[in-house]
Amino acid sequence: MTKNVFIIVNHYCFSAVTLTQFLSFLRSVLDFDFEKLCSISLSHINVYACLICGKYFQGRGQKSHAYIHSVQFTHHVFLNLHTLKFYCLPDNYKIIDSSLEDITYVLKPTFTKQHIAGLDKHGKLYRAYDGTTYLPGIVGLNNIKANDYANVVLQALSNVPPLRNYFLEEDNYCKIRRPPGDIMFLLVQRFGELMRKLWNPRNFKAHVSPHEMLQAVVLCSKKTFQITTQGDAVDFLSWFLNALHGALGGTKKKTSIVTKAFQGSMRIFSKKLPHPDLPAEEKEALLLKDEYQEKMSESTFLYLTLDLPTAPLYKDEKEQLIIPQVPLFNILAKFNGNNEKEYKTYKENFLKRFQLTKLPPYLIFCIKRFTKNNFFVEKNPTIVNFPITNVDLREYLTEEAQATEKFTTYNLVANVVHDGKPTEGSYRIHVLHHGTGKWYELQDLQVIDILPQMITLSEAYIQIWKRQDKDEGAESHTGA
């Protein structure tokens, strides 16, 4: 029921105004993206949001911070962030009004199976409360200071339908039991909340702040990844996928939604090499020993690392550095089972070659652009030329796998780009909207549509490819 109230905000008195009308004014400034802890006691327990100023306070008893705030500043409407119930303080009565449902939905969006099933079947634009239009899933993430390296990874993963669909429905993971004191499950909870916010068709604004998600990342990574310090997107992706897999109860043998979507397998052929400074006769003698014979092992992977050719050191006749280009299939030849590459450790050298035995539904490529040494980080600016659709990886499979793998063709769905210097650069991402078939470029809060031809001109760093598990028209993925 709707009540008439008298509320003073910033010394202006709103008299004889209904609660519904007053809260319609507040919807434009409400923001539930920040960590839900009391602004005074820093407690996570029994926290209420003041709907007048947006601050969080603990409790609603007579000595609580929320009660004191309501008396001191005459802010009377509060929302319990856990129970999603509204209260009027200091009178301490519950407010029941169906028109407030949109506020609780923004705080905790929910998705039905029918809604989830239809996400990739249409490209309907939605209008946020602030008047801006947006496509659910194609939403900017706030760069708090230097967290764009994490933003692009989160945006890329949010556009992988199996992973997205799993986290949109909280019942899929809410009953997973973890050992007492385990903090890693916080990643699962926060990632699920972020997915639901990114895909919420009823947002008050057309962007989302990943503050809570990143706070969980800082805690669970033991400050390896920070909000205030630029990081490496590949390092973050690797850690995040493995941490998410473990938090969902996954092991080397037990699968999770992460391994179901991204995990493939390969054969690694490894041969130990004698030390190069040894005499020739001694090298030949060592090569006859069993220790120096080629050995084969099976290994799983969540992403494939592609090595770029060495960038030129010298400038051309116009005193400009040449930016080389390489076809994607040239650097994929690493996995054809024939190409050998030397890998050095601090005391031993190995010659290795690789061949794929299983392809995942979604294949991640990480293009190795950065080389670290004791003094600095060097970036390779080589441009990788790749098609957007119909990349067939059959030739990189073993003969046995070629006979069993029915589908081996992939289409690009996400492309993470690094611009600028290794330590001072920035990240942006190109994502495919499955419902419209159009490509969009996201950089922090900025979202623009982009021609697919422009994607191949960028310094690609991470790519996610979707396997065609049935005959799919290429035109639906090009955006042309």
From TrEMBL:
InterPro entries: Papain-like_cys_pep_sf (IPR038765), Peptidase_C19_UCH (IPR001394), Ub_carboxyl-term_hydrolase (IPR050185), USP (IPR028889), USP39 (IPR033809), Znf_RING/FYVE/PHD (IPR013083), Znf_UBP (IPR001607). Pfam families: UCH (PF00443), zf-UBP (PF02148). It is found in: Nucleus. Signal peptide: none annotated. Residues 18-114 form the UBP-type domain. GO terms for cellular component: spliceosomal complex. SUPFAM superfamilies: Cysteine proteinases, RING/U-box. Residues 139-468 form the USP domain. One of its GO terms (molecular function) is cysteine-type deubiquitinase activity. Its EC number is 3.4.19.12. Keywords: Cell cycle, Cell division, Hydrolase, Isopeptide bond, Metal-binding, mRNA processing, mRNA splicing, Nucleus, Phosphoprotein, Spliceosome, Ubl conjugation, Ubl conjugation pathway, Zinc, Zinc-finger. The keyword Signal does not apply. GO terms for biological process: cell division; protein deubiquitination; spliceosomal complex assembly. It is an enzyme of class 3 (hydrolase). It catalyses: Thiol-dependent hydrolysis of ester, thioester, amide, peptide and isopeptide bonds formed by the C-terminal Gly of ubiquitin (a 76-residue protein attached to proteins as an intracellular targeting signal). Its main location: nucleus. The U4/U6-U5 tri-snRNP complex is a building block of the precatalytic spliceosome (spliceosome B complex). Component of the U4/U6-U5 tri-snRNP complex composed of the U4, U6 and U5 snRNAs and at least PRPF3, PRPF4, PRPF6, PRPF8, PRPF31, SNRNP200, TXNL4A, SNRNP40, SNRPB, SNRPD1, SNRPD2, SNRPD3, SNRPE, SNRPF, SNRPG, DDX23, CD2BP2, PPIH, SNU13, EFTUD2, SART1 and USP39, plus LSM2, LSM3, LSM4, LSM5, LSM6, LSM7 and LSM8. Belongs to the peptidase C19 family. This is Ubiquitin carboxyl-terminal hydrolase 39. It comes from Cyprinus carpio (Common carp).
